[in-house]
Give the backbone structure.
Amino acid sequence: MFTSMMAAVVANVWPSVGALAQTTDGDSKAMALRPNVVKITASFGQGMGPKTGFGFIVGQQQNRLVVVTADHVVRGDDPGSEDKAPLITFFLNQGSQVEGKLEGVGLPRGRGDLAVILVPNPGFARFVTEAIDLMPPVRGDRVWVVGRAEGWNIPASPGVVADADPFTQRIRVENLGARVGSSGGPLVSGKGIVGMIVDDDGLYTEATPISSIQAQVRDNWRYVWQLTSQAGQLAVLPPAPPSPTSVAPVNDTRADAIGGIFSCRYEDGLKSLAGSHSTNLVFKNSSRSDISLFWLNYDGKRTFYYTLHQGAQFSLATYISHPWVVVDDHGQCLELVLPGKLTAIVNVQ
């Protein structure tokens, strides 16, 4: 839903410096988060034209991006009416589309209006992880929407939070004037995403709080969730692990596996086992050249994943039982990594 927006907050006096700063910060944050936002084109059968909406990336597991959107963007009102392979357009490459996979989970309009799409990462996709604001918005807060009129448009003037509906807990916003086409897009404050657009009744634009979406997607449906608030989850990760050990690695599939960094000579004897417990790895490239990350697949073969430039940092979602190989710019193994308690952060020097 939603194609145009009326966003004018009329005041009888010139706004204060603080108000101007809040407006500028929020507009800048919305601009910075455009790479997180995807356009979704869904089709529901012959004789019905495609409809568009938006969604946003919340994480990546292996080479698939986890996208959340409003359920009604990809599912119709009739039983079985859904697009199991909606087309996804990324902000960074708006001239092409990638076929996504609609997951079987979902909450219909009356129970949350939430769906998940897994999308193969085409290689150019990037998203900001420091992206959400978990503080409940209060009356008077200024907010923006990213995505309207089938583009990554952001209103020059913000809407204003009226309240949270006491029954649905949805955030109600005045002066956004949303129309068909904006459903699934993020509602953004000066600190990050506070909700997802799901409805507009002419008086209010309604959004599901980001905290409710996180709880459903991450905790109930068990998908990878990598979005953090400004405090940042990376700040509380344990320090970098020690240098590679000469002890042979044991691929432990338990949730409390220790993991570790091992000598490259053990690579031939290691392969991925069925993933049962998800985790995150953060790679820091403190070396003087580029490095590349390879996943060891279920046959023990290297599968290229990502190139990390000198001085850069990269977070990926994986499983406890999936080993990783770090190689230099000549393809030589530097480290063999098993995820676990000792390898939340891998600092390659």
About this structure: Residues 1-230 form a domain with the Thrombin, subunit H fold (CATH 2.40.10.120).
